[in-house]
């Protein structure tokens, strides 16, 4: 059960001019479910992407990155679930390229204008022939209003489709942003999500587009964790079709740049947090905010030490204010000169720790009250500087073990 | 249920001349269980210790380290369970010192000659008066044959007492080593165990004694992980009473040094692996060996990435040869120039991965056969150099969540 997360209403997802989506049931792993998505882009669209840093990155990641670097106009993105085409060596690369070839043939574009994405089980050969057989149905289904079915088609262990939409004004012109994401396990920074596709009709040049993407990734998918595992397949793609009619954003000092950057980061943040809310087995949604650090980097280290600790996460599952486990995580986060006597720890508004130990005014029932909530903020005040960072995570429950023990059965 | 681990027979634990142990039921957290241990040392014993590097280290760790650094002869170690005296600030330090004062008063030694240790719940005040009230019973109980009851007295979530014994010849003289350990969660390198006390009657000077300890720690407690959490209280103490009658080992180039070093490492390794076998919720015991790395450090990074992955650990729990999860963990271990095409992965004798993907000869039923075993070796061959490292871990089961969600109830 996802934590305070429901499927978006189809009507809430605005079409993005120049971007059409089509899905199909290709039977890649299981029958009778949508498992293939094609995103077709009109000519003139620009695409930026960030990918997993896992050294064992999947074949489609290698191919998508190579095609992006070719610098040709991207005309299609193709996504299959059920099979990650990872840990598949040379034959996996051939399968990813064959998928692109088939999309290119059907759409009348070049193979290097197609970006492939896969998610699902690792180390199984991708059944390319099933992907190819499903593509005509995707093409027949292509339309701008298909964002919700697209979100459904990329789900694996997700229990809720993840999609969101925004409209903002750029220099008086309304532009639209709509995105979908999937991922519920193997969630970790660099990259955190498994897959996310955000499209806007804004006109923006390639260089500032990449800056918008980098900023959004840092404050969304690279700030969440479910289980500390970094996937082999993660990708976050940002598409700008350029059809909104706004004056093109050509550089980061353009007055519209900040508006678009913040809108994309806000949208990506919502999708990233949706992934945590739908974290495998999650029953609690937890924000960990670390303040007054020397650097954002050290704040993130402390926040992730807390967010990764299985002991902390099981205590949240149990609604047990076993705050010593949070202190222990702070203590091993790797800040060598941390002065624990200056640190303060809060659960929402309740100060729990000060002076190196339990706050004199802290009462167990206050901690217990916060821990029973489905949404909790852990706030650590380091009293060392002015930097801050927030990461989002969930608890560790029996269902996490069940889901991951039985994933392939 | 611990994995292939049973309580040692009392008769298998050899007394160590010059070292006496006494336990008591002090009612520190729960009634009717041994929760207080006193280890009394004859004059002339030498003690070396390594402690947690957690910045939030507990009050007894700070006091024990300070007392060791004073350089006076240690005459007693006092250990309570039920309460870790961690995250307790100044009052925690006073409580740890008061414990030492009381031991010193009763034994007629200096307070700085006493080392305190605590394990149990964090952030609760230590009930010093109960510790003090229990000490006379410990003293009345002091004898050299009490190693097994001592092992029982330091258990927390442990299901099996952990103790082991060895005898080796140093220059023709038989010396004895006996040790006890506890810990089942919060197991992680630097320091991995929660508490371990090893005593020998060998005569050895302070400097080589510390070298023996450092070597043993590296190859035992710093090479295991259950859940990646580093405790606030971990300590590994090595006592040498000097009463065996061997020619004193005065330096590392002494011919007897290597014999004693290897015997202590072997004993500590057995105790460390016992902690993993009794890991919270463990159903499988897993050795992760990484070979042909550039350095021992990079081999350890890869091994710990595998051993820490919740996805890998739940797959072991499910006996599911979902080997892609192991590849993914290798991929994010942090070796930037890893060539995945050269890497080989084995499950016991079964080669699973070669050439960047599934080994052509691999059959799922072979992987399945190994995964069903209660003891499994994961072997990664990096083909980059000549270094190697082994770490030991266990699977992640439903019971881990249950134990840690309900620890305080």
Q: Spans of chain A of 5+ residues with little confidence (pLDDT < 50)?
A: 186-193
Strand content of chain A: 15-25%
For the termini of chain A, the CA-CA separation is 20 Å
Quantity of strands of chain A, as a count: 15
**Helix share bin of chain A:** 25-40%
Radius of gyration of chain A from CA coordinates: 22 Å
**Structural class assignment of chain A:** alpha+beta
Q: What oligomeric state do the depicted chains represent?
A: homodimer
The number of helical segments of chain A is 11
| Arithmetic mean pLDDT of chain A | 91
Gross geometry of chain A: globular
Give a written overview of the molecule:
Chain A has 409 residues and is of the alpha+beta class. Helices cover 32% and strands 23% of the residues of chain A. Chain A has eleven helices and 15 strands. Chain A has helices at 59-70, 89-107, 128-140, 147-153, 206-218, 257-277, 296-308, 310-317, 324-331, 364-371, 398-405; strands at 19-24, 36-41, 46-51, 76-80, 114-118, 162-170, 173-182, 195-200, 235-240, 285-293, 344-347, 350-354, 357-358, 375-381, 387-394. In chain A, the strands form three sheets. Chain A has a six-stranded mixed beta sheet with strand order 13-12-11-14-10-15. Chain A has a five-stranded mixed beta sheet with strand order 3-9-8-7-6, sandwiched between helices. In chain A, strands 1-2-4-5 form a four-stranded mixed beta sheet, sandwiched between helices. The longest helix of chain A is centred in the middle third of the chain and has 21 residues, at 257-277. Chain A is globular, with a radius of gyration of 22 Å. Mean pLDDT of chain A is 91; it is low at 186-193. Chains A and B meet through helix 2, helix 8, helix 9, strand 13 and helix 11 of A and helix 2, helix 8, helix 9, strand 13 and helix 11 of B.
